[in-house]
Design goal:
- The structure is a single chain.
- With 219 residues, this protein is α+β, with helices and mostly antiparallel strands.
- It is 50% helix and 15% strand.
- It is built from seven helices and five strands, in the order H-H-H-E-E-H-H-E-H-E-H-E.
- The chain has helices at residues 3-15, 24-51, 55-79, 111-114, 124-140, 167-184, 206-209, and strands spanning 95-99, 104-110, 145-151, 192-198, 211-217.
- A five-stranded mixed sheet has the order 1-2-5-3-4.
Length: 219
């Protein structure tokens, strides 16, 4: 992972940090692991520095070490503090992950944060959450391709079966709703695509499976 992408990802993470007080322990464990990962990268750079005969390479590695030292210090400061936004409504359960292989950043939005059960109309409270994500994307990933992925649990449609043919239909409608909102807030229409998965990509629980994911292709 490049140093710039690492720093930018941390900036995005800070905007969509888990918002519930009982998530503080989980957040601290995540930050601790990031700290360990950065420390390992730092040790690797220092080892390269000792072997670097090229003055240009030497200068570049020194810059990398300085940047990583700063990132580690920032993470350590975060570890000493309660999870950011712990009292802010509408952010419970939101997580952000980065895949260094694909370069994709994925923001996981629980379905009940965005929608009422069986519905595809955004809750008013969801808009402030999406606005934070839009702000981060426009700041750090302007011009990058975005996919909005809709997912559901495995329960068949029952209460709203007059509106949706099946779970795939509901997941597609929710993905379109979120994509339309992103565009309304300034994300380019040609940059936003939607994908529907219905119940085909379950997570550990039904609650976790009901979600919309915003995937930013950074590469």
């Amino acid at each position: 992972m490049s140093i710039v992408r690492t720093g930018v990802m941390l900036g995005l993470l800070s905007l969509v940090t888990v918002g519930c007080q009982n998530k503080m322990a989980e957040e601290n464990r995540r930050l601790w692991q990031q700290n360990r990962d950065l420390q390992n990268e730092l040790n690797g750079s220092r080892a390269q520095l000792r072997q670097a005969p090229d003055p240009n390479q030497l200068a570049g590695l020194q810059d990398e070490i300085a940047m990583r030292d700063k990132q580690i210090a920032e993470l350590q400061d975060q570890l000493r503090q309660p999870a950011a936004g712990a009292s802010e409504p509408g952010l419970e359960g939101i997580t952000t992950t980065y895949d260094s292989g694909t370069g994709n950043i994925t923001v996981n939005l629980p379905g009940d944060v965005l929608f009422d059960s069986g519905k595809s109309t955004l809750k008013d409270s969801a808009k402030s959450t999406l606005n934070k994500i839009v702000s981060a994307i426009r700041k750090d990933y302007e011009g990058k391709k975005i996919f909005v992925d809709g997912h559901t649990d495995t329960d068949p449609i029952s209460k709203t079966k007059n509106q949706w043919e099946d779970n795939l239909d509901l997941s597609a409608a929710r993905a379109r709703t979120v994509a339309t909102y992103l565009v309304s807030q300034g994300i380019g229409t040609k940059l936003v695509g939607t994908r529907a998965f219905g119940e085909t990509s379950p997570k550990g629980s039904k609650n976790a499976s009901r979600r919309v994911e915003i995937v930013v292709a950074t590469k």
